[in-house]
């Protein structure tokens, strides 16, 4: 009995020990073993983001760049704290990403970038930085107003509060589009005014959108834009009126049809009216006209000129005239350079030619003057860029 018990014990121990010896050496550490895990190598791709994480007072242009080494960028997203994305583009070789435009000033941005190595393994990096807060800023005063309905000659005109020495950057930050689509180009008058227009007058019914993304644009050294705004306006019916200074008439054309011919008085021989295409930029039912403000000294100061519509910055108007005799209109040129229409004092009579034209005109309508013994108006004297050829405008 003792010998049998001992033999049984040895058999049990051999079975336990043999099982461990046979399975432990081969299966215990590999994929087919008892619970071991296979290690996966890390991606060799390295993502670098400039500026560094936590950076402050970062420049709004030229500072942000994402690169990948030993791999290619697959995803780059940049957004401000409101979730507004920054548009950018990954290079064709996948080695770098840069924004397509400038960043806003005084804004915090978050960057998330992912790159893949040749084995498809991903490496990611996340950073946060803040752009500078400028001490000196500028904005653009624009016309027409948001939501306006204007005539076919109305350009988009923007006057900046500071002289611009980096016009390319400023112009890139302004986008003007139209529906139906038409080519639109900008033209600088000096260093503080930028106008946009198509080659020909706008088509009636066109919807125009202006996006001002000036916030963060360095318009001149150390001076940054602080404006981000979208403006829309509509082109109304087509009205183009032609003044013949020699015949002393004005023909009003509406949507291709002459709807009225009015007798006028233009500039006298010593104070002739400019020739050229002019755009109505302001309307006043009654206004004061003082010759001293436009270089005519004390020759006139009329405190209640009726139905006045501005055609130039220098003081050319189409306006009512109650002080000349009715026989003057259509027969003599007696003004100081304006186009006069018969009217009554106080602008209260809607039956006069001046009232008729005023009531049927809107900002942006075109008035063309021809056959005057004067030069052509300069394109920057009012909203009158139509007096430049398309090739000159785009140059």
TrEMBL record:
InterPro entries according to UniProt: Big_10, LD-transpeptidase, LD_TPept_cat_dom, Transpep_catalytic_dom
Gene Ontology terms for molecular function: acyltransferase activity; peptidoglycan L,D-transpeptidase activity
Active site annotation, chain numbering: 319 (proton donor/acceptor), 338 (nucleophile)
L,D-TPase catalytic domain ranges (all copies): 239-370
Keyword Signal: yes
One Gene Ontology term from the biological process aspect of the record: regulation of cell shape
Annotated metabolic or biological route of this protein: Glycan biosynthesis; Cell wall biogenesis; peptidoglycan biosynthesis
Domain of life (superkingdom): Bacteria
Key words, A-Z: Acyltransferase, Cell membrane, Cell shape, Cell wall biogenesis/degradation, Lipoprotein, Membrane, Palmitate, Peptidoglycan synthesis, Signal, Transferase
Alphabetized CDD domains for the sequence: LDT_IgD_like_2, YkuD_like
A GO term from the CC aspect: extracellular region
Pfam families: Big_10, YkuD
Record-given protein name: Lipoprotein
């Amino acid at each position: 009995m003792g010998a049998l018990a001992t033999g049984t014990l040895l058999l049990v121990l051999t079975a336990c020990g043999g099982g461990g010896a046979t399975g432990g050496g081969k299966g215990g550490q590999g994929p087919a073993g008892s619970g071991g895990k296979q290690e996966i190598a890390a991606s060799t791709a390295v993502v670098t983001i400039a500026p560094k994480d936590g950076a402050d007072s970062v420049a709004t242009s030229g500072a942000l760049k994402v690169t990948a080494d030993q791999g290619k960028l697959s995803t780059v997203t940049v957004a401000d704290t409101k979730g507004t994305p920054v548009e950018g583009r990954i290079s064709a070789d996948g080695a770098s990403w840069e924004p397509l435009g400038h960043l806003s000033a005084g804004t915090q941005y978050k960057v998330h970038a992912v790159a893949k190595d040749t084995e498809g393994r991903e490496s990611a990096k996340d950073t946060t930085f803040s752009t500078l807060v400028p001490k000196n800023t500028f904005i653009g005063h624009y016309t027409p107003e948001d939501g306006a309905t204007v005539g076919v000659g109305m350009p988009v005109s923007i006057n900046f509060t500071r002289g611009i020495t980096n016009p390319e950057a400023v112009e890139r930050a302004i986008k003007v589009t139209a529906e139906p689509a038409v080519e639109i180009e900008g033209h600088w008058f000096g260093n503080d005014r930028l106008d946009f227009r198509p080659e020909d007058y706008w088509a009636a019914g066109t919807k125009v959108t202006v996006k001002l993304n000036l916030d963060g644009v360095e318009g001149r050294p150390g001076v940054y834009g602080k404006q981000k705004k979208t403006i829309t306006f509509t082109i109304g019916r087509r009205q183009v009126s032609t003044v013949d200074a020699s015949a002393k008439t004005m023909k009003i054309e509406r949507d291709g049809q002459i709807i009225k011919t009015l007798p006028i008085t233009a500039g006298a021989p010593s104070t002739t009216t400019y020739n050229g295409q002019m755009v109505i930029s302001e309307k006043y039912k009654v206004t004061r006209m003082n010759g001293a403000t436009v270089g005519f000294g004390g020759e006139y100061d009329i405190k209640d000129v009726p139905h006045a519509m501005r055609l130039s910055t220098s003081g050319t108007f189409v306006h009512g005239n109650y002080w000349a005799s009715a026989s003057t209109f259509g027969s003599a040129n007696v003004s100081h350079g304006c186009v006069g229409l018969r009217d009554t004092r106080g602008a209260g009579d809607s039956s006069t030619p001046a009232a008729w034209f005023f009531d049927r005109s809107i900002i942006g309508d075109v008035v063309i003057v021809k056959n005057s013994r004067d030069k052509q108006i300069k394109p920057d004297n009012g909203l009158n860029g139509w007096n430049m050829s398309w090739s000159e405008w785009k140059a």
